[in-house]
Amino acid sequence: MTTKRPEVPAPPQSARPSPARVAKYLVSLIIVLFLAAVAAQAVTIIGPGERGVLLRWGAVTGTVFNEGLSFKLPIAETVDTMDVKTSKIETQASAASKDLQVVTSTIALNVRVRPEQVVWLRQNIGLDYRSKIIDPAIQEAIKAATAQFTAEELITKRPLVREQMKINLQEKLDSLSGGSVAVEEFNVIDFDFSEEFNRAIESKVTAEQLALKAERDLDRIKIEAQQKIEQAKAEAESLRIQSAALRDNPDILQLRWIEKWNGNLPQYLGDSEGIILSLPK
């Protein structure tokens, strides 16, 4: 015997959305999403320490957006963001000194893009301006400055070397970037020389120290000898004065003997014939 399932009543015809209404909903949703996308394309936000260069159909317009919220034409216009904050760069460069010693310099510097020059920089150099102009300019500035000094002068005249490198770099950047990039700070962290030069410097320093020690020892010996001479002169002068006093005053010896006598008579006396007499105590 089979059990018959109860029939589920069909929903009323009016509860089902018609195909036309579904299509209308989909079209409305597509329009809303399109308008939202267009609205998003019309707004751009520039962060702190940045500038926005406006492009229309890929061409630089000359308009610059400052920090904050700005508006542009959707699709037709885009914005390239450029950083104008101070950036730190640390790099190394190998060059030959004036006396043909190979020197590796470790450099740290601060650079920044001048805000009023971002349009020129974007239009003529591009967004990858660091790899195109800054890094090559640093290498060239270091090589040019290093060649003006001997290896020893790089150490003894370090502030002058640093200043010359900074001047060279700024001049090179001005010529390459149209004055768009400024060098704010430049420091030489270290100079690294070849092993042969390091040994030569060490030997020279050792020789100078030994020579200085020998010179000081010689000065000390001279001073000690002069002190002995002066002491001998003083002793000779003292003897001369004493001799003159004894010659002019014969009784002074007897006076000195009396001053040193302890009051005891000698136990033995000798006469002119060499006889020794024992005196009673």
Write a structural description.
This protein is of the alpha+beta class and 281 residues long. The protein folds into three domains: 21-83, no CATH class; 87-193, Tetrahydropterin Synthase, Chain A (2-Layer Sandwich); 208-259. Helix content is 49%, strand content 25%. It is built from seven helices and ten strands. The protein has helices spanning 19-41, 118-124, 129-146, 151-156, 158-177, 195-248, 252-260, and strands at residues 43-46, 50-56, 59-65, 68-71, 77-83, 87-96, 102-113, 181-193, 268-270, 276-278. The strands form four sheets. A three-stranded antiparallel sheet has the order 3-2-5, covered by helices on one side. Strands 6-7-8 form a three-stranded antiparallel sheet. A hairpin with a 2-residue loop joins strand 2 (50-56) and strand 3 (59-65). The longest helix is centred in the C-terminal third of the chain and has 54 residues, at 195-248.
Quick summary:
It contains 7 helices and 10 strands. By secondary structure, it is an alpha+beta fold.
Q: Return the domain count.
A: 3
Shape: rod-shaped
As a percent range, the share of helical residues equals 40-55%
Q: Largest sheet, if any?
A: 3 strands, antiparallel
Provide the CATH superfamily of the largest domain: Band 7 domain
What is the topology, as strand order, of the major beta sheet?
3-2-5
Give the CATH level 1 class of the largest domain.
Alpha Beta
